[in-house]
Amino acid sequence: xxxxxxxxxxxxxxxxxxxxxxxxxxxxxxxxxxxxxxxxxxxxxxxxxxxxxxxxxxxxxxxxxxxxxxxxxxxxxxxxxxxxxxxxxxxxxxxxxxxxxxxxxxxxxxxxxxxxxxxxxxxxxxxxxxxxxxxxxxxxxxxxxxxxxxxxxxxxxxxxxxxxxxxxxxxxxxxxxxxxxxxxxxxxxxxxxxxxxxxxxxxxxxxxxxxxxxxxxxxxxxxxxxxxxxxxxxxxxxxxxxxxxxxxxxxxxxxxxxxxxxxxxxxxxxxxxxxxxxxxxxxxxxxxxxxxxxxxxxxxxxxxxxxxxxxxxxxxxxxxxxxxxxxxxxxxxxxxxxxxxxxxxxxxxxxxxxxxxxxxxxxxxxxxxxxxxxxxx
Amino acid sequence: xxxxxxxxxxxxxxxxxxxxxxxxxxxxxxxxxxxxxxxxxxxxxxxxxxxxxxxxxxxxxxxxxxxxxxxxxxxxxxxxx
Lengths: 377, 81
Known about the structure:
CATH superfamily of the largest domain in chain A: FAD/NAD(P)-binding domain
CATH topology of chain B: Ubiquitin-like (UB roll)
Radius of gyration of chain A: 20 Å
Shape of chain B: globular
Largest interface: A-B, 7 and 6 residues
Largest sheet of chain A: 8 strands, mixed
Shape of chain A: globular
Order of helices and strands of chain B: EEHEEEEE
Number of helices of chain B: 1
CATH architecture of chain B: Roll
CATH class of the largest domain in chain A: Alpha Beta
Number of strands of chain A: 19
Structural class of chain B: mainly beta
Number of domains of chain B: 1
CATH class of chain B: Alpha Beta
Helix content of chain B: under 10%
Strand order of the largest sheet of chain A: 5-6-4-14-15-16-13-17
Mean pLDDT of chain A: 93
Structural class of chain A: alpha/beta
Radius of gyration of chain B: 12 Å
Strand content of chain A: 25-35%
Low-confidence stretches of chain A: 372-377
Distance between the termini of chain A: 49 Å
Oligomer: heterodimer
CATH topology of the largest domain in chain A: FAD/NAD(P)-binding domain
């Protein structure tokens, strides 16, 4: 049998995207996955395909990746529920309105269309928001996807192009050999770690788990039209030392409402914590009082894979491991769904020595080793 | 002869005996309580508030378990979509 060209550890949205891109190259691909096929960080997330402007590198990657999603949309199966509903960043007061204007300009410089909404525009766009809000920023190209189905579709496409799935945990990865939990091993000239928040195979990745809670409601079609996120989200998402919550709500195609969000560092258990979930719900009720009459079906938690500088690790593991066979696609924090298809292309281009549509330097893993000064800032 | 009352179910007036549950009134009217996410009409199954199949919109409030509610004069009930 033809030897494997690449082994991919992890079959979440990132591993599946990488597997698909590699298989489309005509490579013989092996996917090693110890858990369920769509991995844990992937299934726990919101599926918000969102352009984020918290740093120029993040803006470049999210915008590029979103354009790849849009290119893929015509072929995505209906079960992936892709919906370009747009995001509205909600401004509560005049200070946040100033922020809206600033972000509008940042997006414009990146060639991205956004629209500044006045208080009355906002009320008309989302009648269930409370009165007295200052306005918002509409990002019409943002969308929502049912990401477990998208991951499964990418993996299925890879399989149709010959990829093989090995449903086993990888216990060690080095110099082209992947050891598996049953004592056997696999070999390939390239090993890609697409491991989400599970960085045991290469602790030098310095990934920390950042826990989040989500709740989903029964079906209320028409209650919500856009994904809404409070502008304070950026402030709270950047606080790394303390637990934070932010109003973040998403309309699903079924009419269900997906409500978040919370962030907790250094908390690796998956228990639902009622205190922080209550804070999260109270925040949502503050913005949308009508949620009081909405019935909630389920709550769950998940782990975001956070790197010290909030940018993902995409590229050779050089600098973190003395091993030319190891490649990384991990550490996507809350943007794994958004960034997966773009990251897969950057990685595959790097592996074959092809140029990418955007500069991949800011995401190179070696940056983490540029000095001991890297702090969780 | 039991005391009767009137309510509106999907726009039509229905007369039922006082003490009738809303889910029973919807059965009398031949109306589904809700439409499933795949478009199937649904009606009450357990009759005791456990299965959630009898959810309907009652007086404008969606997802009300109609087997746990008694009909009231002038009530409006709609299939939950």
